[in-house]
């Protein structure tokens, strides 16, 4: 049976298989992915070059539902949010050639709400994550909001609300603010936070987005291109925004692409669009790709890491894929 047909019920109905909530250390097993397309040595795809990847899991399905990931300045340690309302922290390991080889020190902890308590998935459906000095900023669907947690004590700290700028009435129940990213401090937006909705559109059919703080604070929109939905975004060093997008159909299965939005175009009132860096279908090693981040090497090399959300389903995979920006 075609894998796209197996996945159809999961993506079409957003079915989530219930798994036990877990905390603490999670032993992770990882399998290295060396080819982006099975049976092909091709490495260049659009403006990106595939470096390597991982398929990973843990005993009892304790890891799953990754919605967003951000790396610390050292490029090794990461913080991720799960749509079950949990934090995941850990580190990536690399082999002698600098390719992803595994995950270490992985742990899971429940997010706390403003009352200092863990809550239900409906209340804590975390989708986006941004790192700023002294705080981690998280966006939530269903009960739409953006909260800032104190860093590094985010696992025990109570969040403070942040102005979403986008009116709550414009946000769809399961298509709210999927992307939240911190722009470069020395870039055109001077470190401001940017949010982009997954499927919430204005009267012209464009996705709601906003600059959440700073002198350019205000609403803009992103040109929506059916059947793609924005699942995350991350800024390049120069200030351009890379949006991760996903599509699904019964015939073609799931697809992934990345779109580059010029920094100069992001301003209140604008409708932004950009060039596609890469597009992939089920012939490549992809799944339900939901999270993206950018790593910058000492030699100026830019790498992009994307991760998938397995929806708690045995039919899907937890993936971490790494690309080098070459164009």
Automatic annotation (TrEMBL):
The keyword Signal applies. Residues 62-312 form the Phytase-like domain. It comes from the Bacteria. Coiled coil: none annotated. The keyword Signal applies. Residues 1-22 form the signal peptide. Keywords: Signal. This is Phytase-like domain-containing protein.
